[in-house]
UniProtKB/TrEMBL annotation:
One of its GO terms (molecular function) is nucleotide binding. Pfam families: GFO_IDH_MocA, GFO_IDH_MocA_C3. Transmembrane segments: none annotated. Belongs to the Gfo/Idh/MocA family. Residues 6-125 form the Gfo/Idh/MocA-like oxidoreductase N-terminal domain. InterPro entries: Gfo/Idh/MocA-like_OxRdtase_N, GFO_IDH_MocA-like_dom, NAD(P)-bd_dom_sf. Residues 143-259 form the GFO/IDH/MocA-like oxidoreductase domain. This is Gfo/Idh/MocA-like oxidoreductase N-terminal domain-containing protein. It comes from Trapa incisa. It comes from the Eukaryota.
């Protein structure tokens, strides 16, 4: 028997909402039911430009959409500074929430969102799409294989893109009152999430921002990096930037093997994604070439990763609605851990690049 269809309301007409609205349409257990903007005209134009289903409800205020009893879940692509207000409002109206990342300006704000969701029994998931690609599960199989990967020792992740002059002057991600976490919140979120995923979501003991971050005139981070250290000696570094060529890399090094990914956030191709592994690598007798086991693995995807995300979220919503299940706390838990590390990087920058202990 097929699942019930989850009816989504989209709150805000950000560019990323175009991608996620397509995903809602592609997922087999969801549909676009309503869209809201701060003006009726903008919401109507957004629906028309993105081929929303006939009959989609159009609202000129966010509150009006939340009052609609037929909206099961909301997708919130609003500026980060507005998340606490509208996520809490949505939870209080009993709407399940797919929340864009970063989830909040800081972990205290996110805790208020989680509290509202828990009190109202609604599912919360952030919009980190690559977590839902089938490649991600395949890579984890390699990382968990002690015989070929061994014990995790070090990690490096990077997400950069070269923003143009208009972006650097006008995008919400460079405005302190909108997305004041800048590249740390936008690109760094992915880097931190991938490091935590590699480490099975064990929080590091200390986080130290790297000297030399680039800030704009308003004090918003355009480029930065950090190092992380765990009690058992694992280490990680990451770099995120709006000022460098497009790069989305993961390197994870174990005691016996290495994982490389070059497109971990957005695959080179929508229909498939790859990763490469090496194990027991060494040199030949004359040190002229490598020996050992090297291979590249290609993973097919029946749906784009964003549609996989919507499908999984909608399945959780349906389990709550039809089976009386409790909200799955895995997702807000890993969102919170990502936010905790992000907060620690920001604190380290503000305190002169000192090591910062990560709060639990």
């Amino acid at each position: 028997m097929s699942e019930a269809i989850v009816r989504f309301g989209i709150i805000g007409c950000a560019e990323i909402a175009r991608k996620v609205s397509r995903a809602i349409t592609l997922a087999p257990n969801s549909t676009i039911y309503a869209v809201a903007s701060r003006s009726l005209e903008k919401a109507s134009n957004f629906a028309a430009q993105n081929s929303f289903p006939p009959g989609t409800k159009i609202y000129g205020t966010y509150d009006a959409l939340l009052e609609d009893p037929d909206v099961d879940a909301v997708y919130l692509p609003l500026p980060t500074s507005l998340h606490i207000r509208w996520a809490v409002a949505a939870a209080c109206k009993g709407k399940h929430i797919l929340l864009e990342k970063p989830v909040a300006m800081n972990v205290a704000e996110f805790d208020e969102i989680v509290k509202a969701c828990s009190e109202n029994g609604v599912q919360l998931m952030d919009g980190t799409m690559w977590m839902h690609h089938p490649r991600t599960a395949k890579m984890k199989e390699f990382l968990l294989d002690k015989a070929i990967f061994g014990d995790l020792k070090s990690m490096h992740t990077c997400f950069t893109f070269g923003a143009d002059a208009d972006f650097l002057a006008n995008d919400i991600r460079v405005k302190p009152h909108l997305d004041g976490l800048g590249s740390l919140g936008d690109a760094g979120w992915y880097c931190i999430r991938s490091i935590l995923w590699l480490a099975d979501f064990e929080l590091p003991e200390t986080v130290t921002a790297l000297p030399g971050p680039v800030l704009n005139d308003a004090g918003v981070i355009l480029s930065c990096g950090a190092s992380l250290r765990w009690k058992d000696g694992k280490v990680a570094t990451f770099h995120c930037s709006f000022l460098s060529h497009l790069t989305m890399d993961i390197t994870a090094i174990g005691s016996k093997g290495t994982l490389h990914v070059h497109d971990f956030i957005i695959p080179f191709q929508e229909e498939e994604a790859s990763f490469s592994i090496a194990s027991e690598a060494w040199f030949d007798e004359f040190v002229t070439k490598w020996t050992g086991k090297r291979s590249e693995h290609v993973v097919k995807a029946e749906l784009p990763q964003e549609a996989c995300m919507v499908k999984e979220f909608s399945s959780l919503v349906n389990a709550i609605r039809t089976k009386g299940s409790k909200p799955e706390m895995k997702w807000p838990t890993i969102s919170r851990k990502t936010q905790l590390v992000l907060d620690s990087v920001k604190q380290s920058i503000e305190q002169g690049f000192v090591g910062v202990g990560v709060l639990q």
